[in-house]
Design a protein that fits this description.
The chain has one domain: Vaccinia Virus protein VP39 (Rossmann fold, 3-Layer(aba) Sandwich). It has 7 helices and 9 strands. It is globular. The chain is α/β, with parallel strands linked by helices and about 220 residues long. The strands form 2 sheets. It has a 7-stranded mixed β-sheet, with helices on both faces. The protein has a two-stranded antiparallel sheet with strand order 3-4. About 35% of the residues lie in helices and about 20% in strands. The protein binds S-adenosylmethionine (SAM). The site of S-adenosylmethionine (SAM) has 22 residues, from α3 and β2. GO terms for molecular function: methyltransferase activity. Keywords: Methyltransferase, Transferase.
């Protein structure tokens, strides 16, 4: 499903997304936005794993605002493996000089403030599996864009996919079926395959590395 006119963000929202630090290209952002608009109509919160500096959060928050729901965005704000010093995706500006470690929380807060979307987002600072363990509420959408190792991507899937309500959407970023395209590994692809094989999810759209799946079945209806 492509982002239709009605599902496209307003120019100022798209402008804020483009101006924010982050890695998601515009065409994938538009697909995420379309999914978020659709899922938010269920009247349930939307949840993101992997806030970074808030680039994708802007789109989720605008979709949530339109439907009167909230976005929960989870991140420990210390960066993923490939964002650490010495790696391709490192941004020295994200390092807290006092602590000597990455801290993307201040940039995230400025991003949301500038976009005027603070009131629609609940930021959770913590490790995704730890937060998932105590989470109880059904979700309209889960967007997985956290750590890209098998350990992290699997934990995100296991922790959050069961909370997607029937009819809700599971969105996975950086799904690269061809190892030639990989830059941080194929863990998101393996999680995507697992979701399809579980029998709980059916694919609804593919936009480059962004995959949207709908929850159509109950837990235990496939291979898990
Ligand atoms: C690829 S970035 C997210 C990009 C963001 N969605 C965007 O579009 O700009 C991945 C983020 O996941 C966070 N992260 C990685 N593993 C995590 C974990 N186990 N728990 C919480 N956050 C994690 C990192 O700190 C990093 O900010």
């Amino acid at each position: 499903m492509a982002a239709t006119q009605a599902q496209a963000p307003a120019p100022e929202v798209l402008g804020a997304f483009e101006a924010a630090k982050g890695f998601m290209p515009v065409h994938e952002g538009l697909a995420l936005y379309a999914a978020a608009r659709e899922a938010a109509a269920l009247g349930l919160p939307l949840l993101e794993v992997g806030t970074y500096c808030g680039r994708s959060t802007i789109l989720l928050a605008d979709a949530a605002r339109a439907a009167g729901v909230s976005v929960i965005t989870v991140d420990h704000h210390r960066g993923s493996e490939e964002q650490q010093p010495g790696w391709d995706y490192h941004d020295p500006q994200t390092v807290d000089p006092e602590v000597g470690r990455m801290d993307t929380l201040p940039t995230f807060r400025r991003t949301l403030h500038k976009a005027g979307l603070e009131d629609h987002v609940i930021a959770v600072v913590g490790r995704s599996p730890q937060v998932a363990r105590i989470w109880r509420a059904p979700l309209g959408l889960v967007f997985i864009d956290g750590g890209h190792t098998d350990e992290h991507a699997s934990a995100d899937y296991e922790g959050w996919a069961p909370h997607v309500a029937e009819g809700g959407l599971l969105v996975i970023h950086d799904v690269f079926p061809d190892p030639v395209d990989e830059w941080t590994g194929q863990a998101p692809y393996r999680v995507y395959l697992r979701a399809l094989e579980s029998g709980m999810f059916t694919e609804t759209s593919v936009t480059d590395s962004l995959r949207v799946l709908r929850r159509t079945g109950a837990a235990g209806s496939g291979r898990g």
